[in-house]
Amino acid sequence: MRNLTQRELRSRYRRSFLGWGWSLLQPAMMTAVYAIMLGYYLKVTPEPGDPSGIDSFAFFLLAGMLPFNFFSAALTTGMGTIVNAGGLVTRVWFPRLVLPLSSIIALAVSLAIELSILAVIVTVFTGEFLLHLLPVAVVLVVLLVMFASGIALFLTAANVRFRDIEYLTGVLLLAYFYMTPVLYPVTFIPQRALLFGIDLREVALANPMARFAMAFRNVFYDVRLPGLPTFLWLVFWSVLAFYCGVRYFVRRADRFAEMM
Known about the structure:
- This protein is mainly alpha-helical and 260 residues long.
- The chain has 12 helices and no strands.
């Protein structure tokens, strides 16, 4: 696991001029585009951070976009690890679990670096040191890695037999991105009553990635602790997704070489 993770980290930006700078430049460029289109042209204005008082659409976007970018990359990258290592899988026995997990852990390292830089910028911008929220941020990253790993392991195992999963996931991730309150605040979702007295906003908040976006914004935009219901919701879905994903992957791993 360690060797594969190190190889993934070393080879990610090999032969590029900026190297690891791309891990920071890509989200920064995406944030600039969305901030101009949504904040300037469409006048999407989230409420200032409470209690931080931050009134920057760019910070609001980054706090929600970085975790979602990690989730999306974990699914798309991890899903192809078994298929792309077909020669290794069919010739050598080893725990197949290390292939997708090593790629996801490498992405988690990139996420940790990006969030650290965001924390420094927020500290400079607000004058409030975020050291007291560091343990909470670490726990959120661990939960996000567990949740993304569980979904990625399930899709990875399914993709070995049904290659359409890879193409379908790309389409669904795009729809999932716009369904998740990353580009807009949760308050933009109308509280329209649906069946059994459940409104549309409650349905949207049942989305685990919506809760992750809220929790990361609480830490890196509002500069406060996430609410207990949000935290418990994330723990539940992260543990459930990781358990089900690992169990499904391990049960099908012995047949990977045969199916390939």
